[in-house]
Amino acid sequence: MPRQVVSDVKAEVHSGRCWPSRTDNRQVVRRTSMVASAFVLGLFDTGVAVVRALGRQDIEVHGFEARPELPGFASGYCRSEVCPSPMTHAPDLVEFLRSRAQRLSVPPIVYPTSDAFVSFVSANREALEPCMRLALPDRDTVETAMDKSKQYALARRVGVPIADTHSPTSLQEVIALAPSLTYPVIVKPAVGHVWRHTYRRDKALRVEGPDALVGLFKDVFAAGQSALIQSLIVGPNTNHCKVCAYYGQDGTPLAVLLMRKIRQYPVDFGVGTLMETVNDPELRALGLRFFDAIGWRGPGSIEFKRDERDGVWRMIELNPRLWQQNGLAAAAGMNFPLVQHRDFEGHAVPTESYRAGARWLDEFRDLQSVWAHRTLGRFGMRDWVGSLKGVGCFALWADDDPGPFGRALAARTRAQIGKRVSRWQQLPSLGAD
């Protein structure tokens, strides 16, 4: 476990702005060897898992995030700093990262852990690559991976099944198409991180009829967004699986692991809150077919769902980075961040096996999922308790690194107190006329 030290707060000035930065509240031992450090971009749950996966291997980790409230700032396995936003201050972030990298004797290996950071790194690779190492394919490939309409076009060409999909570019197209569709349908953003940053937080929307579809697209186009219409893939949460892979610099898949959802939140179109490693040779081959076709490099995951009506696995999307539950892979014996580090250090060895049946739990969001499932009458408390058997790792909790969990718990507690105070303040005063 890292040793305790006193935290400190500094300030770095970039392009006339002051970016506060802080180290974590534990000491990370600085090595003098020529082992490359890691730059982890993003300190949400995904970044926390990456930080731990590397820090536990005695690799020096620097974590950067624009939102200082996120839990990774409390990890004892990295030196963390507040950085400029990749969405709103990209030029400042380029200079910020270059200045950090140039202080090191060996170029660091970069781990972008959100779509916004992947897009930023790809767009600015010419400025970043001279002083750091990037595990990404070429810019055109990243653009294809970021845009679901381009993903689906490629999937059709290479024979990877998808749901019936339409990509309207005008309201007139939607009006003409709406009466011919079988409802409900799903509407999802073409470029998810832009949609969530500028428009709305929903991962996908269920639409029950033609009028609702036309009304939704009026808002979508008015907001300058693009969206897809897809038929519903019928089946429970447990029909969702991910094919997770790391492709080396030479195009060789060095690690491949499958995991399935047991629960997610929101319960219909959400992020996995209880996940389990599985084996499925058919699905593995299907995922690798798409990775190979797109020419992938670095880490990524492809989500599929098996349609109950015909048993066919249909691709939902490729995520061009490490995924939120990458800590589950490490717990099952396949440490993807370490595979990437070894790839760039020149001693990568393909990792062939992992433990099936390992489970991962999002300790906060799974409670929301369970409550929603109970409200819908899908299962009871006994089912929930039984589902926790085999859970060996968590989104935030770790015995050797409790800080991120404590930080998240404190933030949620403050938010709940704020809501209660707000409700109390809105009550009419006693004795008022």
Explain what you see.
By secondary structure, the chain is an alpha/beta fold. The protein is 36% helix and 23% strand. A hairpin with a 5-residue loop joins strand 13 and strand 14. The chain is globular. It starts with 8 loop residues before the first strand and ends in a 7-residue tail after the last helix. The relative contact order is 0.12.
What labels describe this entry?
3 domains; alpha/beta; seven-stranded mixed sheet; 433 residues; Rossmann fold; single chain; disordered N terminus; D-amino Acid Aminotransferase, Chain A, domain 1; globular
What is the compact description of this entry?
This protein has 433 residues and is an alpha/beta fold. It contains 15 helices and 18 strands. It has helices at 45-55, 90-101, 115-123, 125-128, 139-146, 148-158, 171-177, 192-198, 210-222, 281-294, 326-331, 336-345, 365-375, 381-387, 403-426; strands spanning 9-14, 17-22, 38-41, 61-65, 79-82, 109-112, 133-134, 165-166, 185-189, 205-207, 227-231, 240-247, 253-265, 271-278, 298-306, 313-319, 359-361, 391-394.
- The structure class reads alpha/beta
Percentage of residues in DSSP E strands? 15-25%
Overall pLDDT confidence: 89
Subunit organisation of the chains: single chain
Indicate the radius of gyration in whole angstroms.
22 Å
CATH architecture descriptor name of the largest domain: 2-Layer Sandwich
Q: What does the overall shape look like? A: globular
What is the count of helical runs? 15
The domain tally reads: 3
**Considering DSSP H and I runs of 4 or more, what fraction of the residues is helical?**
25-40%
N-to-C span = 61 Å
The CATH homologous superfamily of the largest domain = ATP-grasp fold, B domain
CATH class of the largest domain: Alpha Beta
* Major β-sheet annotation: 7 strands, mixed
Enumerate the strands of the largest sheet in spatial order, edge to edge or round the barrel.
Answer: 16-15-12-13-14-17-18
